[in-house]
Design a protein that fits this description.
The protein has one domain (4-168): HAD superfamily/HAD-like (Rossmann fold, 3-Layer(aba) Sandwich), CATH 3.40.50. It has 7 helices and 8 strands; from the N terminus they run αβββαβαβαβαβαβα. The chain has helices spanning 4-8, 40-51, 65-74, 86-96, 114-119, 131-136, 149-168; strands spanning 12-15, 27-28, 34-35, 55-59, 78-80, 104-108, 122-125, 139-140. The structure holds magnesium ion (MG).
Length: 170
């Protein structure tokens, strides 16, 4: 398990999209629009996390309207798409908020997410992530991307915080 002090510090969760919030499949219509499949339980987990005051930001290498729609649906206000190099953007986001590395958590599934891992204090790889990413992660989820991995991350963070309030409360 991740030490409680580490999850308590989290203020920001940065998520990759394809392979993390989805199973990584990209379905294209004849018009070239992307169809993606999201997991309802992930969405509820993210809502609970945001209710706890943790900000959620999406950073995707691709671009699709479906991602904007899903983010809007969940009340995620900041979404960055078409980002080839996630490192500089990640640094900028963290700097803008005056956060340090320990306050940032990220979830990824593939090599373009390595820069996220380099800038976050707690790094999760989904269970079907590339072996390199799994090797770099602090924690590998039991669930696959698009099938509850993000919900699992949310629950780990929330449960840890609840336990902590039980221990330190009046
Ligand atoms: Mg991905």
């Amino acid at each position: 398990m991740i030490p409680r002090e580490k999850t308590e510090a989290i203020q920001l969760l940065i998520l990759d999209v394809d392979g993390v919030l989805t199973d990584g499949q990209i379905i294209l219509t004849e018009q070239g629009e992307e169809i993606k499949s999201f997991y309802a339980k992930d969405g509820h987990g993210l809502r609970m996390l945001m209710d706890e005051g943790i900000e959620v930001i999406l950073i995707s290498g691709r671009r699709s309207k479906a991602v904007d729609c899903r983010a809007k649906d969940l009340g995620i206000r900041e979404v960055h798409q078409g980002i080839r190099d996630k490192g500089p953007l990640c640094k900028k986001i963290i700097h803008q908020r005056g956060l340090n590395k320990k306050q940032v958590c990220c979830v990824g599934d593939d090599l373009p997410d390595i820069p996220l891992f380099e800038n976050a204090g707690i790094c999760f790889a989904v269970s079907d992530a590339s072996p390199v990413l799994k090797g770099l992660a602090d924690y590998v989820t039991k669930h696959k991307g698009g099938y509850g991995a993000v919900r699992e991350v949310c629950e780990i963070i929330l449960e840890s915080r609840q336990n902590s309030s039980l221990h330190t409360g009046p």
